[in-house]
Amino acid sequence: MWVDCDSQWQRRSRKHWRIGALLGSIASISIASVGWVGLRTYQRFVRLPQAVLVLGGSPEREVFAAEFASTHPNLQVWVSGGSNPEYAEWVFAEAGIEGDRLHLDYQAVDTVTNFTTLVDELKARKINCVYLITSDYHMRRAFTIGEIVLGSRGISFRPISIPSNTQPEPIEKSLRDGARALFWLVTGYTGATLRHW
Predict the structure, then answer these.
(1) Which of 36, 129, 152, 166 has CB atoms 3.0–4.6 Å from 47's, for a disulfide?
(2) What is the DSSP string of the chain?
(3) Is 21 inside a domain boundary?
(4) Mean pLDDT, range 75-99, rounded to an integer
């Protein structure tokens, strides 16, 4: 039986080339990911925060942020989706925070929009690093979204978790909202209706 050696060699070469291309692509993605993570980690520890970003959802976060801001008098404070304005203003006033340092924003309807509604405002004010304050059980999800949304505008953050007696949220919430943040990055929409699946 006659065997076409050149054809077999070509098939093997193509197969090896495909495997090599696949491995090369995986290596490139891995290196790019390590580069991104390395850059974000570097920025997180080298840049000095210029503001405080508080994620609403619990009055304890605002109380903690007010005390924190009183020890950091040069920082502006942004509260996204927090308590009603009267209570929030009272909490910060009690901590000695001047009204011109406090920015209350009520556009957000959930954690993803806590970030997407303010990121361009922070960027416009040339803020490139913030302290991110939220409850410890909520931080994994906030961190995931923050990496995507704030990172897309070159804004780094230093997470500050407020201790609680609550179990951490299921990782599925972080994955879901991370996907929503990526959806926002590509389309400009937050997929707010997707937060219920």
Answers:
(1) 129
(2) ----HHHHHHHHHHHHHHHHHHHHHHHHHHHHHHHHHHHHHHHHHHSPP-EEEEE-S-HHHHHHHHHHHHT-TT-EEEEES-S-HHHHHHHHHHTT--GGGEEEE---SSHHHHHHTTHHHHHHTT--EEEEEEEGGGHHHHHHHHHHHHHHTT-EEEEEEEP-SSPPPPHHHHHHHHHHHHHHHHHS---GGGGG-
(3) no
(4) 96
Which tokens hold the place of 157?
A: 């953050």
Task: Please report, for the domain that includes residue 114, its CATH number.
Answer: 3.40.50.1980
Tally of domains within the chain: 1
- Cβ(167)–Cβ(136) under 8 Å? no
The arrangement of strands across the sheet holding 51-55 comes to 102-105, 76-80, 51-55, 129-135, 156-162
Against a cut of 0.70, is the pTM above it?
yes
Assess if residue 184 is contained within a domain. yes
What does the chain come to in residues?
Answer: 197
- 9 has pLDDT over 90: no
Q: Which two tokens stand for residue 6?
A: 């050149």
In a domain, 78, yes or no: yes
Asked if 32 contacts 38 with a C-beta cutoff of 8 angstroms, the reply is no
Please check whether residue 35 lies inside any domain of the structure: no
Q: Which domain holds residue 147?
A: 42-196
